[in-house]
Amino acid sequence: MGPEGYVRVHDTLEGELVWLILLRKYGVGFEYTDYTLIPALMNGLPRAALPPGFTFNYLAIHILGGYYGYQLIQLFIHSVGFIGMYWLLRKHIIPAYEYNFISWFVAFCFGMIQVFPVFGLAVQGLPLLLFAYLNIYVKRDRWYDYLIILIFPFFTSFVWGFTTIATAVVLFIIVEAVRRNAIPARFILAFGAQSLVFLLINLPLVFLYFFTFGFRAHRKEYRPDEDLDALTGLADSAFSLFMSHYHVAYFTPLPILALMGIASLYPGNFSRYRKIFAIMTVVALCYGFYDLVARLLYKPLPIILALKAHRFITMLPMLWLILMALALHHIFRFSASRRAAGIISGCFLLMIWIADDELGHNIRILIGHPRKPGYESYFSESLFSRIKKDIGLPDSAYRVVSIGMSPTVAQYNGFYTLDGLFSVYHYGYKVRFREIMAAELDRNPSNRKYFDNWGNRCYYFPAAWGHHPRYFLIGKHTSLPPLDSLHINLQAFASLGGKYIFSAVPILHPPKGLKLFGVYEDEKSFWKIHVYENLISINAIKQYSVKG
User: Fold this and answer.
1) What integer best gives the mean pLDDT of the chain?
2) What pTM did the predictor assign?
């Protein structure tokens, strides 16, 4: 469809994809230090807080730009998902040649599951990685198995990939050492080498977070949700197991349960089913109860909340599809249920396509009934060029904050922003930014907990709204009433260099000292921007260094 097509907003256009675009924009993609700053972001966000440049994802964006780079990443990870799952099934799960069609079909289903491309091969790459590790373990390894293991970190998110791999491999080594009292040395060496590559690629982030003197990451101040209970943990576990987690994949495995039910009607050995399902259940329970355990341990061990080391739910899609292959293999040995199995499998594939939100929204755009903006409409470069021209000041001379829209829109268009969605930034900055909206947070306890206990979204939260993603995507056709007022500390805003507010809705009674500068919209833009000017003089802009 080209750049008018839809790209997922949540954590993509609102975060991780734009991080890569900004690295390219400011020419710091290949900076490899823990002290380089990006002045346009939060008055000096450390470059190390953003993804490394020596990865496939960044290279795709660096060479092709945001939209086409994203499409290349999509094509690549889905292709790897298909190929990796086929090789895994064909060699280690269903080696019988007469059932090769099952491997092809299940691999195709796995490759079509919609995931977050910005996390690289964290989900779709796991079958290929498991294929390589199993080859080494059973001593049928080839040179390409080691190549797969060593280059995997260049294609995978450190946060979402390394946690899964390290947890799974370490537990496997422990279990096998107890059972057989022996693990192939090459297996352990391969894992050690891969871990080293992961750490080398992400070394600036590791140094920034753990070893940079004076840098206090806001993540270290995470606080547990006091409202969590065992029932919530069970619900989260069940949902992640049977409906998947939106950060992991968009699909439901319920048809696979139906196939497993049919397979159980026939005689056979179901030990592999039970083992895999037991692993999946443990993974889901670890995810559901992680925050509850962290609440008990975070005072003596504060890093447990900061690291969020429960992301190995990324294994669940692969394990579900392996179960699907086993069930189909069992069923197709008995002709009576082949037709039912075929129908259920077809329904599963259809459900994968329906669950693909990007596909669904692009179809709506094609038929003229869009619900969400396309890539170009979201960033609206011509509209923001008009705003920048009317302001008439150098970009570095002032800072802006967005209301009702993600700060990435302003960031993409070259504005220096005080707000942003980042997984690591200076805690001192969070404290200063909070002063701007302290009165708003006092009026909305839910927003206050969301910001104070977490804070990755360092946004301005009006008390009249919640923190649901719909409040960061308020287009000109969105039916949301104007803000009656804004309880903003304009002096604190000015002390950080704040000069303009970009609001997606009008403010009926702006506070004294805040003046409407102009209203901007055009036919192609998703937004109608109300620009308000802070009349209080901007103090000297302080750049936050990694030394505090």
Assistant:
1) 92
2) 0.94
* Residue 226, token pair as written in the block: 């006091």
Instruction: Give which of 389, 397, 387 is closest to 501, Cα–Cα.
Output: 387
pLDDT exceeds cutoff 80 at 24 = yes
Backbone phi, psi, residue 504, to 5°: -80, -10
Does the pLDDT of residue 546 top 80, yes or no?
no
H or E segment to which residue 62 belongs: helix 56-64
Please give the DSSP secondary-structure letter assigned to residue 534.
E
**Residue that has been written with the tokens 């102009």 in this structure:** 518
- Rounded to the nearest 10 degrees, the angle between the axes of helix 185-201 and helix 143-151 is 30
pLDDT at 84 over 80: yes
Residue 167 is predicted with a pLDDT of 86
Alpha helices per DSSP H over 181-269: 185-201, 203-210, 230-242, 254-263
Secondary structure letter of residue 503 according to DSSP: E
Q: Say what the pLDDT of residue 547 is.
A: 58
**How many C-beta atoms surround the C-beta of residue 278 within 10 A?**
10
Q: CA geometry: angle at 78 spanning 72 and 274, to 5°?
A: 160
User: Looking at the DSSP assignment, which residues form a beta bridge with residue 518?
Assistant: 531
Q: Residue 455 and residue 475: Cα distance in Å, rounded? A: 24
Provide the H-helix boundaries in 223-270.
Answer: 230-242, 254-263
What Å distances lie between residue 305 and 30, 105, 219, 308, 428, CA to CA?
30, 40, 8, 5, 19
Kindly state the average pLDDT of the residues 317-331. 95
- Secondary element (H or E) of residue 483: strand 483-485
Other CB atoms within 10 A of residue 2 CB: 10
The pLDDT of residue 527 is above 60: yes
- Cα-based distances in Å from 133 to 107, 111, 126, 199, 323: 19, 20, 10, 19, 19
As a whole number of angstroms, the distance between CA 507 and CA 530 comes to: 8
CA distance 37 to 53: 15
